[in-house]
Amino acid sequence: METNLSNLKLNKKMDKATYKKEKNKYQKRLMSLQRKIVDEHLGLILAFEGVDAAGKGGAIKRLTSEVDPRGIAVHPISAPKPHEMRYHYMQRFWRKIPQYGQIGVFDRSWYGRVLVERIEGFATNKEWKRAYDEINHFEKLLSDDHYIVLKFWIQISKEEQLERFEERQNDPLKSWKITDEDWRNREKWKQYKTAAEEMLRKTDQDHAPWIVVEGNNKRYARIKVLKKTVKQVENYLKDASIQLPDYSLFEK
């Protein structure tokens, strides 16, 4: 996996026709795999991180739109509430872990400890430095006990981010998405990049891998997220000697 974000080829693209075809194909495959997750009493946990305006929400929307809504929950994570700060920082995530047979999607996650909390000083040096081991142990506990854990980092260029910020700011239907904090975070681009690269190096594990997604082209990014999710679940089932769904039923 590429952990130097400067080396990413962010110009990868996908045309509209290919996007529609691939989206339909992998959304249906994920819908079929959801049935396997229920039948085999597994849990699927997907965590999304990335720079502001990277496209996490759009990717999550396409990932989840065709699955049974009764078996999935999307958790948008923001700053902890006052009552949550009375506990260990992981407590609020433990409470959101999906039950067996369900899918849990985190729009931002426990990795805030080594990203925003590190950069903004909400965690001490001692706290965020030890968090790498804490997070690795947390994910190992889950993966050892019938959970499939997959993490996505979506990266865009600073220039692309500026275009998206300005588009949001000038669109009455999207202006709510842009805040003064987003603009302030742009001034700390290098600090967040350094923190993200260290996070990727220290927490990429075979049982809970990071997938780095080139996000300048939204269509390309959304399909990569869909494909990698399907492939990760398929690999888990194969390793467990569980038969995959018969995709030919809807891919004629």
Order of helices and strands: HEHEHEHHEHHHEH
Query: How large is the radius of gyration?
Result: 18 Å
Number of strand segments: 5
Structure class: alpha/beta
Q: In percent terms, what proportion of residues is strand?
A: 5-15%
How would you describe this structure to a colleague?
The protein is 46% helix and 13% strand. It has 252 residues and is of the alpha/beta class. The protein has a single domain, classed as P-loop containing nucleotide triphosphate hydrolases (Rossmann fold), CATH 3.40.50. The chain has a five-stranded parallel beta sheet with strand order 2-3-1-4-5, with helices on both faces. α1 (16-39) runs parallel beside α9 (218-239) and α2 crosses α9. The two termini are 34 Å apart.
Quick recap of the structure?
The chain is α/β, with parallel strands linked by helices and 252 residues long. It has one domain (5-239): Rossmann fold (3-Layer(aba) Sandwich).
